[in-house]
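--- STAGE predict ---
source: upstream dedup step, 1 unique chain passed
mode: sequence only
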Amino acid sequence: MNLLLMLGGVAVFMFGMKQMSSGLEKSAGSGIRNLFKKFNKDRILNYGIGIGATALVQSSSATSIMTVGLAHANIVTVKQGAGFILGAKVGTTLTAFLFALSGIGKGSFNISYVFSAIAFVGVMIVFATSNETLNKIAPLLIGFGMLFIGMEVMETAIGGADSMLCIQLSKVFQYDIMQNPILLVILGILFTGIIQSSTAATGVFIAFLATGVIHSIDQSFFLVMGANIGTCIDGIMASLTTNANGKRIALFHLITSVIGAVSFLIILILFRTPIIGIFESLFPGRPQFSLATYNLIYNSNYTLVLLVFIDPLVDFVTSLVKDKQEKLEEVSYIDERFLQTPAVAIEQALRELYDMAILAKENLDRSFASLVNEDMSESKKIAETEYRIDFLTNKITSFLIKISSVTKFAGDEKLIGGLHHVTNDICDAGLGLVIYKKGIIRKS
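--- STAGE serialize ---
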């Protein structure tokens, strides 16, 4: 029964993680959009943008998928996206310190209970008010509170170090084979690959540390290193249908994560005892803070070192993934990967719509020139451009409908409605092929 309750706690915790990430994105949508506009050639700035954007949504998977989509749409270069990816690794570590607070105050005052009650505040906002600003914040509060409810349920189900469930679970980590660092890293990769969130995986490891299921903090260090590799799976899956640049970003993410894990794996194996001693002396009786701090130090150090070598790394992944001839029927900016962040998806739709408007204007000018000059030489070009405009109209309209299904903001809904009309108006403006087909171009 305790095992079933623990699994329920894991479920609540993971759902809370997803809900909080979604709430953060919704409440900070314009901030994320502005951050993405600041990409430039400065690797340090792109690194900082990666930290900031991921700190806003607390999901390196979401931001890595977003970067794959941006690279696919040629909004960012591989080098710019690479700097962003390295920064995202650091931005996702901050939540671990919140998880570590779940072990504070197990006496008459328990801070986890205070944080858990925040979920009630979020629910009351949903039921009691229709204020748009408050309703943007409510999902964030609900998700945040659910994180700690899930942590408490897990820890209560596991019980103390002397409980039967804790003893049985801890036996798994006491086997000789579980002392193997490489096996622990692989276990971290597999676990994170299954739940698709390195942040959630770190939270579960922290709960195991706080309850005594994992006795040695170095085991959790190896697990969290594996989690940082496992989170690359989302980006890899997202890149399967992208062009070469999208695949290069996903490959860069994987290669740098492996380099970081292998480097620190060697350091931990060689200096295992003194490193454990340092962390135990820094946080006596609080192993969860040791893991959160190690996670931050680990990701910060290896990403900063790799930032220095970003040029040869980008050249390496570029040489591995060759450019292929692109299909004629393709969009430049919109991509379903952006739907995870509606604010950015709208921005991409505006870019695509602008390009379509330019095409329509050029085709309209071309058509009237043909009419006035009674010149049929541009008829093929007019027909091809009209076909392109029709193609973009269908794609943009479909994309706007999909954005409507994922956004909850009244302002976004109003904007999307307007964009639907603009899309149709621009399509109607591309009269070139219609004029040609109806035989208006003829000698008078």
